């Protein structure tokens, strides 16, 4: 974990008195401030405003100078703090959480504790409609993250078009449920299977590509699927999307206020819209846990080991007789299948889908969750999803700024800890019959 | 035939713009082997800087178009270069020795940052600019269909050819170009022989950004309307062009740009406008799958 202390600055400062470091620190901060000023001119300092039929400029020089001042102060502080580097201290703590603590109870109990909390969450006194909605959203992304984790984290194939499978799942589900009048629990596996099929179809041609070429082609596929969904009016209703998607039922019991066979009537409860939300919450929780469980089991099977081997070195894999084609295809298909499940759930929950929900930025968010959580780490992905999506919700009012902060976070976390917050690189199973450390059993790797 | 000729003219113009952006991708990929995902957004930033500078110059009373354009070009190139430099310094340099996918992920992050920064600073609405360069030449006229070649199209193609020549000469003849080619072949060896690798890579980003700024200005003048999102699609298409031409090869980027521009224009002209992006993306996939080294590129040899 040598990268932990890696920061953007070059060289190491000698441990001399503060005064002798002041001059270079000021000079450096001054240069940074000048660059910040150059960057702010004219994008920040002038604002283009539509006036009648033409654009005019509005002067906002104070903004540029504020940016300059902020950069100066920030850079100066960073320079002076160099020795007691904050980031590396936090890093050390995080590393300890991973390396130092597993024999103790922290690592072993974190995952079960989180699961237990997730199970009882709907019955907590503070759980209102809003909390449940956000939790459902977070869990959807946890599931998507775990699905993508198979492709990116385990097999090492960078997929920038994961949202395509999410979209395929959602649209398959919506179309099947509406046109064939099938219920949620029958449409769900069909949609998942269709997404897996698309995983195979899209995966097959890109097998020969490596690294960033693969990334760009998957990105292109994701965009192609979105453009097709947008323009194939007969099937997908184009940009207007599909509405009236049936809601999930519990063994035929519907979550409605009136009518026969409603959930509330059957159990003799008074109707509350919260019932449906809680039901949805448990569906996505179970789906997500299934994803996690299957991933953990798969990692111990030969195919899972082949994925991890493939991630480390494709040439060595091939030399050792691993069929890289099948290995990659299974990773793509299984990852796509989980994406499809999540898509189905999304469609059933929203009751409405349109191509707008499946843009590249969704892929980027899911990828960010996987990468920032730590490639291959199940619990890391869950934590990253909670932080990112939860953070998104907290700052919902600052609609414009949150994407900016999201992008900055992606850059700086990556620079700070390129392997993610909880970095793991060790294979799940080691040679010589050596068992895993116990904390991986609960998915806490 | 006339329709074909008109599409050809439009396609070459569009292709020139793609080619200019593609050079930035190809140079960066050549030297550090990464896809500078934020390059499309650098192009967008360049286009916005050009727009604002132009409005500012008009505000200052400089209305003689050739002078104004020259100043806009210079300002856009310089300021956009600083953006290119900063992106490299913040997001890529710290990760130079990291694993292969790390800089790609920071690049995506940077792309999001640039898009949203411009959206916040300048607003999400499209920004129109009245036609600056007007005037058409009639190439041929028959049966009511007039094939025209506008002045702006001529300027775009000529500028592109000139810049192409200049940058090819820089790469081929100057010490900087020699350093770049050395870094491309072997970074460690180049640094042992006294090449300042970091500086060379930074300058590569600066050159790419400057060309993207020119492309941004051209785009602004040609279409007369920009928004904060133009970089994404244009970036992917330019990347397709770079791959098609053979990544790492400058003439290849130009050739690829032309081909992509032509395919897109003809596709939109003869089949359907909605699916023109699908055409470009499909070409990207097909080229990468069947011809990964492109038209003019060298095959990548995998060393164990």
Could you walk me through the main structural features you see in this protein, from its secondary elements to its overall organization?
The complex is a heterodimer of chains A (445) and B (304). With 445 residues, chain A is mostly helical. Chain A folds into two domains: 2-84, no CATH class; 94-440. Chain A contains 17 helices and four strands. Chain A has helices at 18-40, 61-80, 86-100, 105-120, 129-154, 163-179, 184-203, 211-231, 233-236, 263-266, 273-300, 302-312, 314-319, 324-350, 360-373, 378-394, 399-416, and strands spanning 46-51, 54-59, 242-243, 352-353. In chain A, strands 1-2 form a two-stranded antiparallel sheet. In chain A, strands 3-4 form a two-stranded antiparallel ribbon. In chain A, strand 1 (46-51) and strand 2 (54-59) form a beta hairpin. In chain A, helix 6 (163-179) crosses helix 14. Chain A is globular, with a radius of gyration of 25 Å. The model of chain A is unreliable at 1-15, 99-104 and 433-445 (pLDDT under 50). With 304 residues, chain B is mainly alpha-helical. Chain B has one domain (2-290): ABC transporter involved in vitamin B12 uptake, BtuC, CATH 1.10.3470. Chain B is 73% helix and 6% strand. Chain B is built from eleven helices and four strands, in the order H-H-H-H-E-E-E-H-H-H-H-E-H-H-H. In chain B, the strands form two sheets. Chain B has a two-stranded antiparallel ribbon. The radius of gyration of chain B is 19 Å and the shape is globular. Chain B starts with a helix and ends in a 14-residue tail after the last helix. Classes of the chains: A mainly alpha (445), B mainly alpha (304). At the A-B interface, helix 1, strand 1, strand 2, helix 8 and helix 15 of A face helix 2, helix 3, helix 4, strand 1 and helix 9 of B.
């Amino acid at each position: 974990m040598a990268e932990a202390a890696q920061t953007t600055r070059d060289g190491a400062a000698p441990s001399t008195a503060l005064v002798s470091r002041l001059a270079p620190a000021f000079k450096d901060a001054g240069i940074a401030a000048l660059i910040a000023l150059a960057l702010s001119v004219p994008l920040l300092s002038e604002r283009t405003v539509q006036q009648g039929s033409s654009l005019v400029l509005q002067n906002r020089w104070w903004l540029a100078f504020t940016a300059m001042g902020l950069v100066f102060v920030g850079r100066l502080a960073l320079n002076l703090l160099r020795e007691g580097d904050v980031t590396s201290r936090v890093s050390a703590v995080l590393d300890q959480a991973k390396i130092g603590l597993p024999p103790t109870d922290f690592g072993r109990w974190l995952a079960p504790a989180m699961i237990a909390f997730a199970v009882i969450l709907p019955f907590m006194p503070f759980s209102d409609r809003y909390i449940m909605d956000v939790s459902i959203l977070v869990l959807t992304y946890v599931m998507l993250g775990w699905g993508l984790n198979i492709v990116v984290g385990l097999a090492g194939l960078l997929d920038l078009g994961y949202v395509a499978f999410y979209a395929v799942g959602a649209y398959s589900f919506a179309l099947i449920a509406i046109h064939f009048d099938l219920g949620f629990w029958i449409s769900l596996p069909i949609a998942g299977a269709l997404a897996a099929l698309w995983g195979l179809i899209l995966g097959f041609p890109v097998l020969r590509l490596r690294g960033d070429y693969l990334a760009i082609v998957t990105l292109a596929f994701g965009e192609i699927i979105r453009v097709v969904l947008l323009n194939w009016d007969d099937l997908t209703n184009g940009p207007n999307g599909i509405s009236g998607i049936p809601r999930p039922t519990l063994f035929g019991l519907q979550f409605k206020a009136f009518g026969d066979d409603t959930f509330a009537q059957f159990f003799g409860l008074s109707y509350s819209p919260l019932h449906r939300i809680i039901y949805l919450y448990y569906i996505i929780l179970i789906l997500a846990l299934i994803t996690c469980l299957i991933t953990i089991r798969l990692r111990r099977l030969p195919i899972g080991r082949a994925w991890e081997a493939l991630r480390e070195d494709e040439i060595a894999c091939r030399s050792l007789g691993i069929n890289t084609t099948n290995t990659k295809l299974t990773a793509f298909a299984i990852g796509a299948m989980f994406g499809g499940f999540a898509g189905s759930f999304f469609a059933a929950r929203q009751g409405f889908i349109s191509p707008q929900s499946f843009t590249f930025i969704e892929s980027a968010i899911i990828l960010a969750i996987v990468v920032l959580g730590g490639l291959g780490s199940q619990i890391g992905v869950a934590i990253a999803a909670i932080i990112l999506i939860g953070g998104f919700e907290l700052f919902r009012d600052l609609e414009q700024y949150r994407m900016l902060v999201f992008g900055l976070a992606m850059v700086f976390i990556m620079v700070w800890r390129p392997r993610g917050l909880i970095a793991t690189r060790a294979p799940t199973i080691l040679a010589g019959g050596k068992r895993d450390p116990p904390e991986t059993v609960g998915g806490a790797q | 035939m006339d329709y074909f000729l008109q599409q050809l003219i439009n396609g070459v113009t569009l292709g020139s713009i793609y080619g200019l952006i593609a050079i930035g991708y190809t140079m960066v990929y050549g030297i550090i082997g990464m896809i500078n995902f934020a390059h499309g957004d650098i192009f967008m930033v360049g286009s916005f800087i050009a727009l604002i500078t132009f409005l500012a110059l008009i505000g200052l009373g400089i209305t003689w178009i050739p002078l104004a354009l020259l100043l806009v070009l210079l300002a856009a190139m310089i300021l956009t270069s600083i953006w290119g430099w900063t992106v490299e310094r913040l997001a890529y340099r710290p990760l130079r020795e990291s694993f292969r996918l790390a800089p790609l992920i920071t690049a995506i992050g940077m792309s999001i940052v640039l898009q949203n920064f411009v959206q916040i600073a300048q607003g999400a609405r499209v920004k129109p600019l009245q036609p600056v360069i007007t005037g058409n030449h009639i190439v041929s006229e028959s049966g009511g269909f007039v094939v025209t070649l506008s002045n702006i199209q001529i300027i775009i193609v000529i500028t592109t050819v000139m810049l192409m020549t200049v940058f090819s000469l820089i790469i081929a003849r100057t010490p900087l170009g020699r350093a770049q080619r050395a870094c491309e072949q072997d970074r460690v060896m180049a640094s042992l022989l006294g090449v300042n690798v970091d500086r060379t890579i930074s300058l590569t980003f600066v050159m790419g950004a400057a060309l993207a700024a020119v492309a941004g200005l051209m785009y602004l003048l040609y279409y007369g309307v920009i928004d904060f999102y133009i970089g994404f699609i244009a970036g992917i298409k330019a990347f397709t062009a770079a791959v098609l031409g053979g990544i790492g090869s400058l003439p290849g980027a130009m050739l690829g740009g032309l081909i992509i521009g032509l395919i897109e224009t003809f596709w939109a002209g003869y089949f359907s406008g909605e699916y023109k992006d699908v055409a470009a993306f499909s070409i990207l996939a097909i080229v990468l799958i069947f011809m990964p080294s492109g038209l003019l590129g060298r095959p990548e040899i995998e060393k164990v």
